[in-house]
Write a structure and sequence with these properties.
Length: 181
C-alpha cells in the first residue's frame, strides 16, 4: 500500500463523508437496505424515503413532500442533489483497512453520533458496511449509495449536530495528514 496515497485519500475520505453528511458498514452487501431517512433539524423532523432521494439524485426531480420539507428547512434541492452525487475515489480493500483502524473507528464513532440507526446500536458496523459496499462496484463512494446500502430499514440524521461533527472531523483530518499511514 502506498503511504502517500493513504495520507491523501484518508483525509479526503473523512472530509467527503462529512460534507456529504451536512445535508442529508463490512464488505458485503446488506441483507436489508434503508428505506427511509429521518432528518431532524431544530424543531423539524421528517421521514424521507430513500426512493425520493434516489430520484432527486438520478434525475433532479423533487417529490412534492421532499420539496415541502426542503423549503421549510431552507435548503436548495440542487445543492442536496450535488451532495448526494458527489463521488470520491475509494478502493474497498483500503477503505476497509482504514475504517477498521483506530482512526477509522474514531471517525465512525463521531459520524455515528449524527448519522445512526434508530436504536443507535451496531451503528459503526452499519456505517462501515454501507460505505464499503458503496465502493465495491466502481471504487467510488457517493452519499446516495451509502444511504441505499445502509443495512437497516431506517437511519436517522441529526442536522443540529452536523457543524460540530464537521469541525471535529476537520481537526482530525488535519492531524492525520501529518501521520504516516
Amino acid at each position: 500500500m502506498d503511504l502517500v496515497v493513504m495520507n491523501v485519500r484518508f483525509p479526503h475520505f473523512c472530509l467527503s463523508l462529512m460534507f456529504a453528511s451536512l445535508l442529508a458498514g463490512a464488505g458485503t452487501l446488506p441483507l436489508a437496505a434503508a428505506e427511509r431517512v429521518v432528518l431532524t433539524y431544530s424543531v423539524l423532523r421528517e421521514s424521507i424515503s430513500i426512493e425520493e432521494l434516489g430520484e432527486l439524485s438520478r434525475t433532479g426531480k423533487v417529490s412534492p413532500s421532499l420539496k415541502a420539507y426542503l423549503k421549510m428547512a431552507n435548503k436548495n434541492p440542487e445543492e442536496l442533489r450535488g451532495w448526494l452525487n458527489r463521488p470520491f475515489q475509494a478502493d474497498p480493500v483500503t477503505l476497509s483497512r482504514v475504517l477498521n483502524s483506530f482512526a477509522g473507528e474514531y471517525v465512525l464513532n463521531q459520524v455515528g453520533q449524527v448519522i445512526h440507526t434508530p436504536s443507535k446500536r451496531d451503528n459503526k458496523e452499519a456505517l462501515r458496511g454501507a460505505i464499503i459496499s458503496s465502493a465495491e462496484k466502481d471504487n467510488q463512494v457517493r452519499l446516495i449509495e451509502v444511504l441505499e446500502n445502509y443495512p437497516t430499514p431506517e437511519l436517522h440524521v441529526n442536522g443540529d449536530r452536523l457543524m460540530e461533527l464537521y469541525q471535529q472531523v476537520e481537526g482530525l483530518t488535519a492531524m492525520l495528514g501529518r501521520l504516516p499511514f
